[in-house]
From TrEMBL:
<feature type="binding site">
    <location>
        <position position="291"/>
    </location>
    <ligand>
        <name>Mg(2+) 2</name>
    </ligand>
</feature>
<feature type="binding site">
    <location>
        <position position="293"/>
    </location>
    <ligand>
        <name>Mg(2+) 2</name>
    </ligand>
</feature>
<dbReference type="InterPro" id="IPR011761">
    <property type="entry name" value="ATP-grasp"/>
</dbReference>
<dbReference type="GO" id="GO:0005524">
    <property type="term" value="F:ATP binding"/>
</dbReference>
<dbReference type="GO" id="GO:0046872">
    <property type="term" value="F:metal ion binding"/>
</dbReference>
<feature type="binding site">
    <location>
        <position position="291"/>
    </location>
    <ligand>
        <name>Mg(2+) 1</name>
    </ligand>
</feature>
<dbReference type="InterPro" id="IPR013815">
    <property type="entry name" value="ATP_grasp_subdomain_1"/>
</dbReference>
<dbReference type="InterPro" id="IPR016185">
    <property type="entry name" value="PreATP-grasp_dom_sf"/>
</dbReference>
<dbReference type="InterPro" id="IPR000291">
    <property type="entry name" value="D-Ala_lig_Van_CS"/>
</dbReference>
<dbReference type="GO" id="GO:0005737">
    <property type="term" value="C:cytoplasm"/>
</dbReference>
<keyword id="KW-0547">Nucleotide-binding</keyword>
<feature type="active site">
    <location>
        <position position="15"/>
    </location>
</feature>
<comment type="similarity">
    <text>Belongs to the D-alanine--D-alanine ligase family.</text>
</comment>
<feature type="binding site">
    <location>
        <position position="277"/>
    </location>
    <ligand>
        <name>Mg(2+) 1</name>
    </ligand>
</feature>
<dbReference type="GO" id="GO:0008360">
    <property type="term" value="P:regulation of cell shape"/>
</dbReference>
<comment type="pathway">
    <text>Cell wall biogenesis; peptidoglycan biosynthesis.</text>
</comment>
<dbReference type="Pfam" id="PF01820">
    <property type="entry name" value="Dala_Dala_lig_N"/>
</dbReference>
Amino acid sequence: MKKTIALLTGGTTGEWVVSVKSAATIAQNIDADLYDVYKIMLNDKGWFYEPADSVKIEIDKNDFSLTLDGRKIKFDGVFIAIHGSPGEDGKLQGYFDMIGIPYTTCDALTSCITMNKGYTKAIVEGINNLFTAKSIQIFKNGDYNISQIKQDLRLPYFVKPNSGGSSIGMSKVKHADDLDSALEKAFREDTQVLIEEFVSGREFSIGVYSAKGEVTVLPTTEVIPANEFFDFEAKYTPGATQEITPGNMSDEEYARVHQIIKDIYKKLNCRGVVRIDYFLEHETGKFYFIEINTIPGQTSTSFIPQQVAAMGLTLKEFYTSLMKETLG
């Protein structure tokens, strides 16, 4: 029997644009023989279903149901495709846990913790062969000393909102005098900011997911941005970045990276598909953890669809295995 699935898109941050594109890819590739899909938009104005005639129908938040032509539609599961809040930070996961509807992502606690780059780094610290760049986490209106930060960290450094995504509000600081303006930019996006020493290395992004009870690592993507670093423009402008899938790693690097990625996935108690970004340091080849995305982009230019194709799977096969694993 077909399952009725809500595909949840939108969000309340600047990333909603990416979310809508991700949802379009997902909707096109869900197996219609197995699932009836209703695309639900969530934004500042409410939660609603928008059928072809464009009359918005509000979702009943008491049980996340939809009344269509006098018929009440209840959902067997939710495919969450919202990047940023409230899809990626645990809020929606907590809501669905309370009303008993399964969803495709990590649970509320993992989603909440991994939105915070500083906290995530503290948890993955200690995984064999994993390194993290030296960093300082500061809070808006908190007690921090800029001159002390400049002494403690060596230039250049990245300044990034601790809970942001899509590289919004991020800066690469090469001159100590530019730190103030970089902090100002990051604090416009978040109340916590991470200042991190720059690691000189080759950048990669790799998907990992659980299906049929097994953790599977997708082929990695090597990222060679034309810009100074992999910023919002580089991420979402076709041709602004050279992306090589599968990325070029030696057999030793391949084996080591796969083990580290599986260890991160398990230690953070992930489920569904996540994407982990990392550097292989130029001089040493050491694996430096950058961050984890628990709801990675699924747009036509996103890494996960590229990596799924490189693995020889169709997106339909991939989404089906993902939904069977997480939604039952």
